[in-house]
Amino acid sequence: AIGFVMGFAMLWLFKPVMNSDDYVRRAIGFVRFLGIFLWAFLVSCWAIARAAVLARMDPIQPRLITYDVRGLTKFEILLLSHCISLTPGTTTVDVSPDFATFVIHVFDTSDPDSVRAEIDQTLRRGILAFTR
């Protein structure tokens, strides 16, 4: 770990000389993505645990929603679908044959657009930070 940190620090310090701008940017993007995914995972776990333990007066509203993935590579689509399925409360049910949309099952939402926006702002943006 110490060697990695020292090596990364050298790459970061000598970016112009070693032409390592892309590597440094992607490595930092990957670390940020891990933090974003961990936060989304913990928030989802808390929401599911709260719904399971507390007796709610309002009914749970599960939904199947579509999510547009056009413009992503197959690797990015695969990674995004796994991240969505790993966060409790959401599961990727299907990917269209042309790799343009997902069908996602959401445990409880009254606003599908807010779920799409949240995926765009967290997981998708995090994945694109280190894959492009």
Give an overview in words:
- The structure is a single chain.
- By secondary structure, this protein is of the alpha+beta class.
- The protein contains 5 helices and 3 strands, in the order αααβαββα.
- It has a 3-stranded antiparallel sheet with strand order 1-3-2, covered by helices on one side.
- The longest helix is centred in the first third of the chain and has 33 residues.
- The model has no long low-confidence stretch (mean pLDDT 92).
Give the overall form: elongated
Distance between the termini: 26 Å
- Radius of gyration from CA coordinates: 18 Å
Give the overall pLDDT as a whole number.
Answer: 92
List the helices and strands and how they pair.
Layout: H1 2-13, H2 15-18, H3 21-53, E1 63-68, H4 74-86, E2 90-95, E3 101-106, H5 112-131
Antiparallel strand pairs: 1-3, 2-3
Please summarize what this structure is.
This protein is of the alpha+beta class. It is built from five helices and three strands.
Features:
132 residues, alpha+beta, 62% helix
